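Customer escalation, tier 2.

The customer says the design service returned an amino acid string that "doesn't look like it belongs to this structure." They asked us to rerun it and document both sides in this ticket. The original structure tokens are below, unchanged.
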């Protein structure tokens, strides 16, 4: 019976580390793929209805970034954040953006 318990504990411990390493591998793959993108040669930036498609690429980028930041701020205004550590805290937020540009929060985790 003790062997079965030891075996189950071993499986439980190894399964927890399996999920951590899977998450780490996923993040490494994302970082690797992002490293392959040449951000300087983007044909055009995604645009919102408030942005003018006929302006220069730099102006498109500025409009895209400002509009996206504005949407993030509006979305996060629905939440209340309380800081407990005076040094710094990290909050991971997963946003979902639909095809119409509507942003919603999928998950928030405090590290």
């Amino acid at each position: 019976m003790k062997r079965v318990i030891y075996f189950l504990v071993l499986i439980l411990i190894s399964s927890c580390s399996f999920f951590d390493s899977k998450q780490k591998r996923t993040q490494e793959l994302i970082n690797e793929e992002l490293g392959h993108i040449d951000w300087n040669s983007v044909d055009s930036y995604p645009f919102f209805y408030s942005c003018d498609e006929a302006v220069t690429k730099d102006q498109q980028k500025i409009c895209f970034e400002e509009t996206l930041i504005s949407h993030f701020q509006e979305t996060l205004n629905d939440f209340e954040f309380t800081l407990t550590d005076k040094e710094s805290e990290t909050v991971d937020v997963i946003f979902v953006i639909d095809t119409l540009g509507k942003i919603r929060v999928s998950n928030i985790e405090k590290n």
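Tier 2 assessment: The sequence is consistent with the input. The chain has one domain: 2-81. The first strand starts at residue 91 and ends at 97. Sent an explanation to the customer and offered a walkthrough call.
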